[in-house]
Specification:
208 residues; alpha+beta; four-stranded antiparallel sheet; 6 helices; 50% helix
């Protein structure tokens, strides 16, 4: 009988797994040592895509649920805010406001109750556009945009600018009022500023 010598092979490691185990059921161990199966990875990616789609659909439904005036205000503000930034930098505050005043169509003023209802909604849309725009508009640009959009609807609001001294520095802030009611900012925050009366353009350079 012929003697047969059996030569032992190299020690088997976790990475040297049979093909049957790699193609095994969901939950089998992967060669990299991870416990998450390929199907679970794909499932998570699909779940993430589905979650993003749900968020987009939800936001779209919320947008479509707005009134036509609110949607118009939001979309116009997305374009108006960066345009105001360029205008203020190139031609200054006085000429920018003068240009806005000369580009207001003649419209009938709404009733006081109607204006009091519509103006806060428009203010929320301008602020929402400022939050979602790649360009982050400061208080003056948001207030100018709202002031002009209200004027186009026949609502005559007031652009107010106030100042305060904090940490030995002069700070200024702009907001819009309608009948003494602050539209586009927190009343508690606005109260920390002393508003100017009359010509307030000289404090423009301090606005943050």
């Amino acid at each position: 009988m012929r003697n047969t010598t059996i030569v032992p092979g190299p020690a088997r490691t976790d990475n040297d797994q049979p093909l049957s185990r790699l193609n095994g059921p969901i939950g089998s161990r992967l060669p990299c040592g991870g416990r998450l199966s390929i199907m679970n990875c794909l499932g998570r990616r699909t779940s993430c895509r589905r979650s993003r789609l749900v968020i987009i659909v939800r936001k779209l439904r919320s947008f479509l649920a707005l009134s036509g005036e609110e949607r118009w205000t939001f979309l116009i503000s997305l374009l108006l805010l960066p345009a105001l930034a360029v205008a203020l930098q190139r031609i200054g505050m006085r000429r920018t406001r003068s240009w806005l005043e000369h580009h207001v169509p003649p419209v009938a003023a709404p009733s006081a109750s109607d204006a009091a209802t519509r103006a806060p909604r428009m203010a929320r849309m301008v602020n929402a556009a400022a939050r979602r725009s790649p360009y982050k508009a400061n208080c003056l640009k948001r207030s100018l945009a709202l002031w002009w959009l209200l004027r186009r609807r026949g609502i005559d609001s007031e652009l107010r600018i106030g100042v305060r001294k904090k940490d030995n520095a002069l700070q200024a802030h702009a907001w819009i009022e309608l009948g003494g009611v602050v539209l586009n900012d927190s009343l508690n925050y606005v109260r920390t500023f002393t508003p100017f009366a009359g010509d307030v353009m000289s404090v423009y350079r301090f606005l943050d």
